[in-house]
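Notes from the 1:1 (GR / supervisor)

We went over the backlog. Supervisor wanted to see one worked example end to end before approving the batch request, so GR pasted a single chain during the call. The sequence is below; no edits were made to it. Supervisor asked that the structure be written out right there so they could see what the output format looks like.
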Amino acid sequence: MSEDLILTGIVLLSAPFREADRRLILLTKERGKVTAFARGARRSGSSLLGSTLPLCFGSFRVFEGRSAYTLVEARIDCYFGEIRRDLMHSGYAAYMMELADYYGRENLDASGMLNLLYVSLKALENPSLPDKLVRYIYETRLMVMNGEYPQETASDPSLSPAARYALSRMISAPLGSLYTFTVTKEVLSEIASVQDRIRKRTLDTTPRSLAVLESMTLLAVENDGQ
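Structure output shown during the call:
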């Protein structure tokens, strides 16, 4: 008889299911990406009501079924409230979580991906870091973790020395110091050009959240120019 499991993770996706349930995609340290169903989570007064939405990070007690898990209880340690309250931050977070969903695999140790996502979401809440830089650092490191990043990028002679240095840090800096630097607008533009080219060549799909994020960014730029 199966026993309950305690999984440390974050809700990547949450969708209504049946009359009052939710279907969740969790990125977990112990089991990688898993699907879990939260029975009655949409009912008023449910103990799972506030813990089954995207960005909820914590411990999830689940029962393992044949093809999915059933969520029994959740203890949320971080809701990322600053991100939830900011529309642009929410857009960046949605894109980052969609990439985690893309690379996530079931029954694989996802501690590295989970830690990267956590510190990257925390970096989004840091007002001294440009959101766009956080996005590209996360993108780069996630591809490195999954063996899909061309290491020679950081030595490309067509890039400025500052851009090559920044890319080198993005590729190999310890996780604890990954978000301890910033760059000029010119260097960020170089990094964006490189990363957009690599992403289009590497991913076999265009993330839906990226199109939304780019539209939001363009609208924000237009509003600032008025």
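Supervisor's comment: The helical segments are 81-84, 87-103, 111-124, 131-145, 161-172, 185-202, 208-224.
Batch request approved.
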